[in-house]
Amino acid sequence: MKRDFYVGYLPFPVGLKPLFRLLIPVTLLIALGTVYLIAEKTPAAGSGTWALDTTTVTGTIVMDPYPMLITDDRQDNPILLVQLGKMSAHDIVAPYAGQSVELTGFMIERGPWQMLEIESSESVQASTADKLTLPTASEPIAVSLQGEIVDSKCMLGVMKPGAGKVHRDCAELCIMGGMPPMLLVKNADGDKAAYLLVDENGKAVGTQLLPFIAVPVRLSGSAFRLGKMPVIQVQSKDVQALAGEVLAAFGPSIGLAGTSSFCRIVS
Amino acid sequence: MSHGFTTVQWNKNKKVYDGLLWAGILLAIIANVAISASVVPTASVPSMEILVLRALGDTGFLLLTLILSTGPLARLNERFLPLLYNRRHMGVSFFVIASAHGLFALMWYHGFGPVDPLTSLFTSQGSFESLSEYRFQPLGFFALLIFFLMAATSHDYWNAVLGPGVWKALHMLVYVAYGLVLMHMSLGALQSTHSALPDWAPFASLAVVGGLHLVSLVWQQNQPDKLSGGEWIEIENPSAIPQNGARVIEVGGDERIAIFRNENDEYGAISNVCRHQAGPLGEGCMVEGLVTCPWHGFQYQLSDGASPPPFEEKVATYQMKLLDGKLVLNPDPLPPGTARPLVKPFVNKE
Ligand code: HEM
Ligand code: FES
Question: Can you give the pTM of this predicted structure?
């Protein structure tokens, strides 16, 4: 009997052709079937958006707790300001603190939150518009919440998804770069809310929360509203990593009377 | 025809193989991205960069599973040999896909920040002690490093420079890298509620790859006749060896000898280990009078174990003779390339 012995540099043995005519499509089908099973349960990544075109907005720069722009439309809900990449806009806008400016950048938006990503000092023009002031803060109340600390830029639309374990290193770089951290919580109904995190003096928290980013945490602090913007004052000693928990399976958001009046992220 | 094996390079089989391979790869990536994007509401579709980086990782993982399965498959049934012949191309293609995945991840998750991407990869939070906080990305990096070494030394030039022993050892590291990839998946994407990778994926791969290796190992254990060696040993029932085929016997601990029968019913014994990448010569075939390795087609003359000129590969040969009408073999190897008479134990074809 002639053996159908395949030698790479000789013509393909005729006897093997039927097998391979079957094997190739079958392998391809198995591969595509597996791809389907791997991809079909892709979870939704939130409704955040990151504009491809620039927008120009006029308003007043405030630097504390984070660089923000107060505009006519959003006097009670300022626009957070960040730079391209994983960097704070602090150095770009600091010379304009308290002044009226025109900013050009890419809008990042999720639910009631807005953030503008600016490129360089050329994105800022002085303006003669009236100066606006930050709304006064509401009376703080003590809260204790379970959730995940995320970086606001990725969370609000630049990275989808912008939370969870695989995103941890990225979130860390953003926080190191000065991006405002947020606490993301989810209540029993699955509603998500986000709080801007500041230090005990109401200033930028800096890098003290780095060890707690992108892991489930219980966080205690005092919560207040800056206009409509929900903020929690926190110190790293009051944050506890919840070891062994499934990542991002938040507990109920508790202890905050009238959570519903706080900013909500519609997911 | 014997020059076919070093003037390598492009032949029709390879072109067809590569064409099919890359069509499959591109189809798998595109289908993955398209399916992922279509199963969620438009507003909540993950970033395209993330979908692509996941699809590259998934495709690499499937390819790796396939690559590791071809070895034992071809061992078990020579009809699968065409898969093996160009495995190097599949390996290098896999490396391209896996590197693209790694580079995307480095750029997207570690780039554009206050520290450079590689520093970030190795200095980020997390630990190597806690499973839930395990730093899964360096695992992928080390796997990729091994794949790089393999791809870089895949050419026969390196096989010659490093010597078959070192080369083989280096390429056995693929199993370490495979383990690292499975851990990279289990400790990374599988732990994230934001990623779709199903829990069973690494286990299914391990079951296929491990299962095939186990079956082929058992098969191989039962294959060769084990003989104690030292003196002349009898080769039983030589007529059962097919013309142009061989029987593999094992002497001493693990020395394997291929006893070939040529078209004229002459018998000759040579080492079973191909000088190229240690392919099993005895599972090969005699093509136009030359022993031809089943893996990449290197050829040897049965008369002296040497490749036909101008090639210089040589394998050890063994003496055989007829003793009381029985075919016997001396298990002490002769130096590679030594000629000795072939033996014709019977006159009539069975
Ligand atoms: C420098 C090396 C590597 C880095 C930095 C890296 C990084 C990552 C990251 C960040 C993810 C999560 C992606 C996401 O869910 O958004 C991931 C997932 C994955 N990686 Fe890697 N990786 C590397 C090497 C590898 C290699 C060599 C393989 C082998 C094929 C691999 C296979 C996978 C697979 C299969 C996934 C799961 C994708 C999914 O969720 O469907 N990775 N990797
Ligand atoms: S031809 Fe490659 S191992 Fe023999």
Answer: 0.86
